[in-house]
């Protein structure tokens, strides 16, 4: 017997956390009866589970790396009709992004239909590094960089220590290129961290997720993750608890 939200996640409908919201919202039925209890257990082989009246079926897990362009929403649907990340990948499975990149941020984004895999990578107790390159207004000094390295207080709490380096500076235009490595995923975190220092972000790109980089991909391009990459990501998360 398995918890209902786990079965939904394994079917590729949504992450386990999102599946829980579906259950509490009354969108899930088991053998024709609505279930709103999160601890409810089912037999995946025998029980008929439906989400929004659509029966579940076990999908083969798929894993993609997308070079997300700017001006694209990191969701699998958008009420405003804007371009979404899943528009760039033709997949028979129902895939969704692991975490998000801001509308105006480009770079590495992973997509999957494996809810357990997504949960592991997004869980705050695991330290999977994300590397960003930001073009900012002004040129941060050593004192300001130290604040980022020690953790900076934002509205929703203090950030974990970051690795920071100025890659280049243009004193005529009063701008700088900053590399920032973090392992958290607070909303708009990198932008807010730099804004807090008085150096608003002009352009932002995620260069790396864990050990995965963009390689030869162009904006909008994608590739399937190799089995050893999926295995390595899982091991990386499991072996690095905070």
UniProtKB/TrEMBL annotation:
SUPFAM superfamilies: Alpha-L RNA-binding motif, Pseudouridine synthase
The UniProt record lists the keyword Metal-binding: no
Assigned EC number: 5.4.99.-
UniProt GO molecular function: 23S rRNA pseudouridine(2605) synthase activity
SMART domains per record: S4 (SM00363)
Domain RNA-binding S4 residue range list: 2-60
TM ranges: none
Coiled-coil spans in chain: none
Alphabetical UniProt keywords: Isomerase, RNA-binding
Matches recorded under Pfam families: PseudoU_synth_2, S4
InterPro entries assigned to the protein according to its UniProt record, in alphabetical order: PsdUridine_s_RsuA/RluB/E/F_cat, PsdUridine_synth_cat_dom_sf, PsdUridine_synth_RsuA/RluA, PsdUridine_synth_RsuA/RluB/E/F, PsdUridine_synth_RsuA/RluB_CS, RsuA_PseudoU_synthase, S4_RNA-bd, S4_RNA-bd_sf
Matches recorded under Gene3D superfamilies: Alpha-L RNA-binding motif, Pseudouridine synthase I, catalytic domain, N-terminal subdomain, RNA-binding S4 domain
Sequence similarity: Belongs to the pseudouridine synthase RsuA family.
Name this polypeptide is given: Pseudouridine synthase
Organism this protein belongs to: Shouchella xiaoxiensis
Organism lineage: Bacteria, Bacillati, Bacillota, Bacilli, Bacillales
């Amino acid at each position: 017997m398995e918890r209902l939200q786990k079965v939904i996640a394994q079917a590729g409908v949504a992450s386990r956390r999102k599946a829980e919201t579906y259950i509490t919202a009354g969108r899930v039925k088991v053998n024709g009866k609505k279930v709103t209890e999160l601890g409810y257990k089912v037999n995946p082989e025998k029980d008929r589970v439906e989400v929004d009246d659509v029966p579940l079926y076990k999908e083969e897990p798929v894993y993609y790396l997308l070079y997300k362009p700017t001006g694209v929403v990191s969701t699998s649907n958008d009420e405003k009709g804007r371009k979404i990340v899943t528009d760039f990948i033709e997949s028979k499975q129902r895939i969704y992004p692991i975490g998000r990149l801001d509308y105006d941020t480009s770079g590495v984004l992973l997509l999957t239909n494996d809810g357990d895999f997504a949960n592991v990578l997004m869980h705050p107790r695991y330290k999977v590094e994300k590397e960003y390159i930001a073009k900012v207004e002004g040129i941060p000094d050593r004192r300001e960089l130290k604040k980022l390295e020690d953790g900076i207080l934002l509205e929703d709490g203090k950030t974990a220590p970051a690795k920071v380096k100025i890659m280049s500076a243009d004193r005529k235009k009063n701008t700088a290129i900053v590399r920032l490595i973090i392992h958290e995923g607070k909303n708009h975190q990198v932008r807010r961290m730099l804004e807090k220092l008085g150096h608003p972000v002009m352009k932002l790109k995620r260069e790396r997720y864990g050990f995965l980089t963009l390689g030869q991909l162009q904006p909008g391009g994608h590739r399937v993750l190799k089995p050893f990459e999926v295995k390595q990501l899982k091991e990386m998360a499991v072996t690095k608890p905070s």
